[in-house]
Amino acid sequence: MTVSTEGTVAVLPPGGPDAPARPIPAVRHGLGSRGTLLLLEAVVAFGAALVLPLLAVRFKLDPLDRIAQVSGLAAIQLRFALVGLLFIAAVALAMRLRGGRHFDLAARIAAAALAGLASGFVAAGAVVALHGTPWPMFGLNGDSGRIVEWAHAVANGRPSGSPVYPPAPLHTLGHYAEWFRGGNTAYAFKDLQILGAAAFGPLVYLSWRMLLGPVRALAFGVAPAFALIDAYKPYSQTVLVVLVPVLVAMVVSLSRSGTQGWRPLLLKGAGFGALLGVLFLTYSGWFLWSAAGVLFAALLYFPWRTGRLGRLKGAAFLGASLAAFLVVAGRYLAVMLTEGQTTKDYNFRFDNFTDPAYYLMWRTDMPGKVGEWPPPGEYGGVGLFALVTFVCLGAAIWLGIRRPMVVTVAAMFISAWVMRMYIASHMYETQTVQLYTRTNNQLLYCGLLLCALVVHLVSQRMAERRAESGAGSETVSGTAGTGFPGREGAVIGALCALLLLLGTVSSSMADRYMPAKENTYRILPWVSHTITERDGSCPEYAPGGTCSKDGDQSWLSFIR
Predict the structure, then answer these.
(1) What is the pLDDT at residue 365?
(2) Cβ atoms of residues 182 and 163 within 8 Å
(3) 310 close to 259: Cβ distance less than 8 angstroms
(4) pLDDT tens-digit profile of 288-325?
(5) What is the mean pLDDT of the chain?
(6) How far apart are CA 80 and CA 74, in angstroms?
(7) Between β-strands 22-23 and 9-11, what pairing exists: parallel, antiparallel or unpaired?
(8) Whose CA is closest to 549, among 535, 537, 532?
(9) pLDDT tens digits, one per residue of 260-284
């Protein structure tokens, strides 16, 4: 047995200590099954994600004024901190009241709430940035315009302009527009940019809950993901941060499949396949970067040693997953395998002219003013952040070489790295890019996860030793006999640190979209404020009260 940081006693399953634990029924807080508790966490997370955007709707400010933008960010941060502190205070009270009977429940709710509040912060920033205009970021220009046009075609029963573009976002936008915006996919896209950013935190939190307890899921899964949150096209990054834990959980389940019953085995396999199909329909690029690594992990953790019946069950698990995947996404997969091979990306971007080994920061397609790039580092041009990432890669493999979670994440990192270099090495010959710079995001996320997993493994080892030493009871001072602080203090301390970390990161990511006339992502909402509305009027805060059909495009002179 081992004691988790959330205080629930967990029995280690056959797949190893980082496989999802089977908790003993939650008698301490008197609630029902684990499914009921997870449903409660989901409701809290999604509800918390909507709090800050709804509050931001009432702000009265000029979104094009920098002082107003700073005031708006501070107002969101204040509300984020106050609401988050209320949840943490509830955890502290639960520790003191009724012998701590409801502490675990309070910690669950607080972790879920912080995940939702953090992405709600970024969504609230988008509300401020687009205040006074009905248009989505960038209006009908660039990717935004194409998505709006294709979604309108799909909603009216016509094919989209690109058969290889993921169909799920187009159908979602088209149907949402029909239901809530009178068929106006442009105005509907603004809503989905905000709602998509808000859903980011809850979705990644619930995905990591398949593998980790509530506070660990928040610290080691959600926190690294916030380096990638995006309010412009939120679905692509959301698929990445959800896909990683889903694939890890699938490999963990495969490693145990040889000893499971047939019914749960097939249902679980079909569930994974269907979920992967939905993710593939939403954004397929991450599957290409991850395929080799996941295949390696699957072969490594296939139940080879469980006898003929065990191997048959492992094959049945994979077969059920594949069948469900093909039912959901088979048609689109066929399109990608045929027409996707002839689709070429000739659009050379900022990152295509930099060192391909540098992936630690993506300046976007509109990098703004850039000095020396990549930034000079202390060790052969490599900075401290890169060194820490690679050290953590080695340390995570060392500490977790027998754990599917660690090996799968490391394999996905290496797979993306190899695919990146393979495509980039052919760039001169083919004069195509094929989106290889998008591997930046997967490499960064997996690298951050490996750093987090080192902390997870070390803290887990400390908890195991504390349990083995018989230090289950605490002294009067609240410190265990081994000298380790009590778990309640660890949980509350972690929640406080994560509140400040996520609040700071979310503010930075929200500020990235505050309108400004410059060659960065800030130009996206700026243009939205300069486009003529459907009734012929200008948005409320259009500069000088002037607007046009395509909006202000004079910023293009900055990049020439």
Answers:
(1) 82
(2) no
(3) yes
(4) 999 999 999 999 999 999 999 999 999 999 999 999 99
(5) 90
(6) 10
(7) antiparallel
(8) 532
(9) 999 999 999 999 999 999 999 999 9
Strands of the sheet containing 22-23, edge to edge, are 2-3, 9-11, 22-23
DSSP letters along 118-172, please?
HHHHHHHHHHHHTTT--SPTTTTSHHHHHHHHHHHHHHTT---S-TTS-HHHHHH
Record the tokens describing residue 93, joined without a space: 């009270």
Q: How far is CA 308 from CA 30, 98, 258, 262, 312, in A?
A: 43, 52, 9, 14, 6
Report yes or no on whether pTM surpasses 0.85: yes
Cα–Cα nearest to 122, from 130, 112, 134, 133? 130
Per-residue pLDDT tens digits for 211-235 = 999 999 999 999 999 999 999 999 9
Q: What is the C-alpha to C-alpha distance for residues 533 and 551, in angstroms, rounded to an integer?
A: 10
From residue 331, give the alpha-carbon distance in Å to each of 275, 277, 318, 338.
16, 11, 19, 11
Question: For the chain, what is the radius of gyration of the CA atoms?
Answer: 24
DSSP assignment of 302-316, as one string? S-TTSHHHHHHHHHH
Name the one residue in this structure whose structure tokens are 């960064």.
444
* Residue listed under structure tokens 């690109």: 162
Structural tokens at position 201: 């935190």
Residue type, 558: F
Q: In the structure encoding, which two tokens stand for residue 202, read together?
A: 């809850």
Q: Which two tokens stand for residue 329?
A: 């996404």
Please report where in the chains the tokens 């912080």 appear, as a residue. Answer: 114
Q: Which of 537, 201, 228 is nearest to 360 (CA)?
A: 228
Over residues 447-460, mean pLDDT: 94
The residue with greater pLDDT, 361 or 13, is 361
